[in-house]
Amino acid sequence: MLALGVLAVDQGSKALWGEATGVVIPGVLHLAPTRNTGIAFGLLQGSSGAVLAMAGVALMVLFAWLAGCGGLGQRIAWALMIGGALGNVADRLRLGYVVDFLALTFMPWFPVFNVADAALVVGVALLVLMEVLGGRKSVR
């Protein structure tokens, strides 16, 4: 359910603000819509087919991993990553590119991103943090 919630918030935010510009939080966040035909940080620009195939494989791996995870923390982390991946795959299937629109004003060098990207990063960070703090605990 969390993955579907991330997907809904991602797609809803893109529908509302994906083409808007302006300041959201002065000095912190502004809207800067871009079309990303590559992957994170603009890599593989113009390779939508290859990127979509890689995303599909990654989603299958994530679903398989989630099915085997026993701990709540791992399930939350994987659900965030799956929801984020689904949000970006939905854009690629519908538009041929990913809509990025959130820009950190205080870090102008940081790439423009979206809610799906944020969910992916938080999910990965949670997994790394749980691994560092105590290792992966599974109920297999």
Fill in the keyword field for this structure.
alpha+beta, 14% strand, 140 residues, 58% helix, 4 helices, 3-stranded antiparallel sheet
Summarize the structure in words.
This protein is α+β, with helices and mostly antiparallel strands and 140 residues long. It has one domain (2-134). It contains 4 helices and 3 strands. The protein has a 3-stranded antiparallel beta sheet with strand order 1-2-3. A hairpin with a 3-residue loop joins strand 1 and strand 2 (29-36). Helix 1 packs parallel to helix 3 (72-95) and helix 3 (72-95) packs antiparallel against helix 4. The chain is globular and about 45 Å long. The mean pLDDT is 85.
Briefly, what is this?
The chain has four helices and three strands, in the order αββααβα. With 140 residues, it is an alpha+beta fold.
Itemize the secondary structure elements and their pairings.
Elements: H1 2-17, E1 22-25, E2 29-36, H2 48-68, H3 72-95, E3 98-104, H4 115-134
Antiparallel strand pairs: 1-2, 2-3
Helix pairs in contact: 1-3, 2-3, 3-4
The overall number of domains is 1
DSSP helical segment count: 4
Total number of beta strands: 3
Sketch the topology as an H/E string, one letter per element. HEEHHEH
Q: Overall pLDDT, averaged?
A: 85
Segments where pLDDT lies below 50 for 5+ residues? none
Query: Strand fraction band?
Result: 5-15%
Rg: 16 Å
Strand order of the largest sheet: 1-2-3
**N-C termini distance:** 22 Å
- As a percent range, the share of helical residues equals 55-70%
Output the structural class.
alpha+beta
The geometry reads as globular
Largest sheet at a glance?
3 strands, antiparallel
